Amino acid sequence: MTYDLFADESPNLPIGTKVSIPDSDILHFHGLFAPSDADDLLARLKSEIQWQQEKIKLYGQVHDLPRLTAWYGDAGKKYNYSGIVVDSLTWIEPLLEIKKRIEAVSGVAFNSVLLNRYRSGADSVSWHADDEQELGRNPVIGSVSFGEARPFQLKHKTKDERTKIVLHHGSYLLMQGATQHNWLHQIPKSKKTLSERINLTFRRII
Asked: What string of DSSP letters covers the chain?
Protein backbone atom coordinates (compact mmCIF):
# COMPACT_ATOMS: atom_id res chain seq x y z
CA MET A 1 0.00 0.00 0.00
CA THR A 2 1.26 3.48 -0.82
CA TYR A 3 0.43 6.84 0.70
CA ASP A 4 0.07 10.25 -0.92
CA LEU A 5 0.36 13.47 1.06
CA PHE A 6 -2.94 15.24 1.60
CA ALA A 7 -2.59 19.03 1.56
CA ASP A 8 -4.81 20.65 4.19
CA GLU A 9 -5.97 24.19 3.45
CA SER A 10 -4.98 25.42 6.90
CA PRO A 11 -1.24 25.50 7.77
CA ASN A 12 -2.13 25.42 11.47
CA LEU A 13 -3.84 22.02 11.36
CA PRO A 14 -2.11 18.62 11.22
CA ILE A 15 -1.69 17.14 7.76
CA GLY A 16 -3.02 13.64 7.23
CA THR A 17 -1.94 11.11 4.64
CA LYS A 18 -4.41 9.93 2.04
CA VAL A 19 -4.66 6.14 1.97
CA SER A 20 -4.28 5.19 -1.67
CA ILE A 21 -6.75 2.36 -2.16
CA PRO A 22 -9.49 2.40 -4.82
CA ASP A 23 -13.14 3.29 -4.24
CA SER A 24 -12.44 4.98 -0.91
CA ASP A 25 -11.74 8.29 0.80
CA ILE A 26 -9.55 7.69 3.85
CA LEU A 27 -7.15 10.00 5.70
CA HIS A 28 -4.68 8.75 8.30
CA PHE A 29 -3.33 11.10 10.99
CA HIS A 30 -0.57 8.98 12.52
CA GLY A 31 -0.05 11.04 15.69
CA LEU A 32 -2.92 13.48 16.04
CA PHE A 33 -2.68 13.17 19.84
CA ALA A 34 0.69 13.77 21.51
CA PRO A 35 1.94 10.76 23.53
CA SER A 36 1.31 12.46 26.88
CA ASP A 37 -2.23 13.47 25.86
CA ALA A 38 -2.92 9.98 24.51
CA ASP A 39 -1.69 8.40 27.76
CA ASP A 40 -3.93 10.67 29.83
CA LEU A 41 -7.00 10.09 27.68
CA LEU A 42 -6.49 6.32 27.68
CA ALA A 43 -6.39 6.26 31.49
CA ARG A 44 -9.50 8.43 31.75
CA LEU A 45 -11.45 6.34 29.26
CA LYS A 46 -10.61 3.16 31.16
CA SER A 47 -11.91 4.57 34.43
CA GLU A 48 -14.73 6.95 33.40
CA ILE A 49 -16.56 5.15 30.59
CA GLN A 50 -19.55 2.97 31.51
CA TRP A 51 -18.29 -0.18 29.81
CA GLN A 52 -20.77 -2.92 28.90
CA GLN A 53 -20.39 -6.61 28.08
CA GLU A 54 -22.92 -6.99 25.25
CA LYS A 55 -24.06 -10.38 23.96
CA ILE A 56 -24.61 -11.52 20.39
CA LYS A 57 -26.59 -14.43 18.96
CA LEU A 58 -24.79 -16.64 16.44
CA TYR A 59 -26.24 -19.80 14.93
CA GLY A 60 -28.85 -19.99 17.67
CA GLN A 61 -26.36 -19.59 20.54
CA VAL A 62 -25.71 -16.52 22.69
CA HIS A 63 -22.09 -15.44 23.13
CA ASP A 64 -20.30 -12.56 24.81
CA LEU A 65 -19.19 -9.94 22.31
CA PRO A 66 -15.36 -10.34 22.13
CA ARG A 67 -14.70 -6.84 23.50
CA LEU A 68 -16.31 -4.31 25.85
CA THR A 69 -18.38 -1.49 24.35
CA ALA A 70 -20.10 1.79 25.17
CA TRP A 71 -22.31 4.19 23.21
CA TYR A 72 -22.38 7.95 23.91
CA GLY A 73 -23.90 10.87 22.05
CA ASP A 74 -26.46 13.62 21.81
CA ALA A 75 -29.81 12.92 23.46
CA GLY A 76 -31.95 10.37 21.63
CA LYS A 77 -29.22 9.05 19.31
CA LYS A 78 -30.12 5.34 19.32
CA TYR A 79 -27.93 2.92 17.36
CA ASN A 80 -28.48 -0.61 16.06
CA TYR A 81 -25.49 -2.79 15.14
CA SER A 82 -24.99 -6.58 15.02
CA GLY A 83 -28.50 -7.01 16.39
CA ILE A 84 -27.65 -4.87 19.43
CA VAL A 85 -29.72 -1.74 20.11
CA VAL A 86 -28.19 0.92 22.35
CA ASP A 87 -29.38 4.29 23.67
CA SER A 88 -26.86 7.09 23.98
CA LEU A 89 -25.25 7.93 27.29
CA THR A 90 -24.54 11.60 28.02
CA TRP A 91 -21.23 12.98 26.76
CA ILE A 92 -18.43 13.15 29.34
CA GLU A 93 -15.44 15.49 29.34
CA PRO A 94 -12.73 13.25 27.83
CA LEU A 95 -15.04 12.32 24.94
CA LEU A 96 -15.80 15.99 24.29
CA GLU A 97 -12.05 16.75 24.28
CA ILE A 98 -11.39 14.04 21.71
CA LYS A 99 -14.42 15.09 19.66
CA LYS A 100 -13.25 18.70 19.51
CA ARG A 101 -9.75 17.67 18.40
CA ILE A 102 -10.89 15.46 15.54
CA GLU A 103 -13.63 17.80 14.34
CA ALA A 104 -10.98 20.47 13.81
CA VAL A 105 -9.23 18.37 11.16
CA SER A 106 -12.31 16.58 9.80
CA GLY A 107 -14.66 19.43 8.94
CA VAL A 108 -17.48 17.33 10.40
CA ALA A 109 -19.59 17.74 13.53
CA PHE A 110 -20.09 14.29 15.06
CA ASN A 111 -23.10 13.58 17.29
CA SER A 112 -22.29 10.11 18.67
CA VAL A 113 -19.48 7.65 19.33
CA LEU A 114 -19.14 3.88 19.69
CA LEU A 115 -16.27 2.80 21.94
CA ASN A 116 -14.63 -0.63 21.77
CA ARG A 117 -12.25 -1.86 24.46
CA TYR A 118 -9.93 -4.66 23.37
CA ARG A 119 -8.56 -6.14 26.59
CA SER A 120 -6.05 -8.48 24.96
CA GLY A 121 -5.24 -10.13 21.64
CA ALA A 122 -8.24 -12.43 22.21
CA ASP A 123 -10.61 -9.48 21.73
CA SER A 124 -11.55 -8.58 18.18
CA VAL A 125 -14.17 -7.35 15.74
CA SER A 126 -15.02 -9.38 12.63
CA TRP A 127 -15.49 -8.23 9.04
CA HIS A 128 -18.13 -5.52 8.69
CA ALA A 129 -18.87 -2.09 7.21
CA ASP A 130 -20.22 0.86 9.16
CA ASP A 131 -23.16 1.25 6.78
CA GLU A 132 -26.23 1.10 8.99
CA GLN A 133 -29.24 3.01 7.68
CA GLU A 134 -29.17 5.64 10.44
CA LEU A 135 -25.68 6.73 9.30
CA GLY A 136 -26.94 7.98 5.92
CA ARG A 137 -25.80 7.30 2.36
CA ASN A 138 -22.10 8.20 2.68
CA PRO A 139 -21.21 7.74 6.35
CA VAL A 140 -18.37 9.74 7.84
CA ILE A 141 -16.53 7.67 10.45
CA GLY A 142 -13.83 9.19 12.66
CA SER A 143 -11.77 6.43 14.29
CA VAL A 144 -9.42 7.25 17.19
CA SER A 145 -7.08 4.66 18.73
CA PHE A 146 -5.38 4.64 22.13
CA GLY A 147 -3.20 1.93 23.64
CA GLU A 148 -1.78 -1.14 21.94
CA ALA A 149 -1.16 -0.84 18.20
CA ARG A 150 -3.40 -3.23 16.26
CA PRO A 151 -3.68 -3.92 12.51
CA PHE A 152 -6.81 -2.49 10.89
CA GLN A 153 -7.48 -4.84 7.98
CA LEU A 154 -9.57 -3.89 4.94
CA LYS A 155 -10.90 -5.95 2.06
CA HIS A 156 -12.86 -4.80 -0.97
CA LYS A 157 -16.43 -6.07 -1.25
CA THR A 158 -16.23 -6.96 -4.94
CA LYS A 159 -12.56 -6.85 -5.96
CA ASP A 160 -9.66 -9.06 -4.92
CA GLU A 161 -7.97 -6.31 -2.93
CA ARG A 162 -6.84 -6.25 0.67
CA THR A 163 -4.66 -4.02 2.77
CA LYS A 164 -4.00 -3.07 6.39
CA ILE A 165 -3.10 -0.01 8.41
CA VAL A 166 -1.43 -0.32 11.80
CA LEU A 167 -3.32 2.04 14.12
CA HIS A 168 -0.95 3.36 16.76
CA HIS A 169 -1.49 5.06 20.12
CA GLY A 170 -2.98 8.52 19.48
CA SER A 171 -3.72 7.99 15.78
CA TYR A 172 -6.83 9.11 13.90
CA LEU A 173 -8.40 7.55 10.79
CA LEU A 174 -11.08 9.48 8.88
CA MET A 175 -13.24 7.36 6.54
CA GLN A 176 -15.78 9.07 4.31
CA GLY A 177 -17.29 9.14 0.83
CA ALA A 178 -17.95 5.69 -0.66
CA THR A 179 -15.56 3.87 1.69
CA GLN A 180 -18.24 1.97 3.63
CA HIS A 181 -20.05 1.01 0.40
CA ASN A 182 -16.95 -0.65 -1.05
CA TRP A 183 -14.81 -1.90 1.84
CA LEU A 184 -15.15 -4.18 4.87
CA HIS A 185 -12.80 -3.87 7.85
CA GLN A 186 -11.85 -5.84 10.95
CA ILE A 187 -9.50 -6.03 13.94
CA PRO A 188 -8.41 -9.69 13.99
CA LYS A 189 -7.59 -11.79 17.03
CA SER A 190 -3.93 -12.28 17.88
CA LYS A 191 -2.09 -14.99 19.79
CA LYS A 192 0.55 -12.46 20.82
CA THR A 193 0.58 -11.01 24.31
CA LEU A 194 -1.00 -7.61 23.78
CA SER A 195 -1.98 -4.86 26.17
CA GLU A 196 -5.28 -3.01 26.08
CA ARG A 197 -6.52 -0.88 23.20
CA ILE A 198 -9.48 1.48 23.15
CA ASN A 199 -10.95 2.57 19.84
CA LEU A 200 -13.56 5.28 19.39
CA THR A 201 -15.56 5.53 16.17
CA PHE A 202 -17.31 8.88 15.99
CA ARG A 203 -20.39 9.06 13.78
CA ARG A 204 -23.29 11.20 12.62
CA ILE A 205 -26.68 9.62 13.33
CA ILE A 206 -29.24 11.18 11.01
From this structure: --EEE---S-TTSPPPEEE--TT-EEEEETTSS-HHHHHHHHHHHHHHS--B--EEEETTEEEE-SSEEEEEESTT--EEETTEEEPPBPP-HHHHHHHHHHHHHH-----EEEEEEE-STT--EEEE----GGG-SS--EEEEEEES-EEEEEEESSSS-EEEEEE-TTEEEEEETTHHHHEEEEE---SS----EEEEEEE---
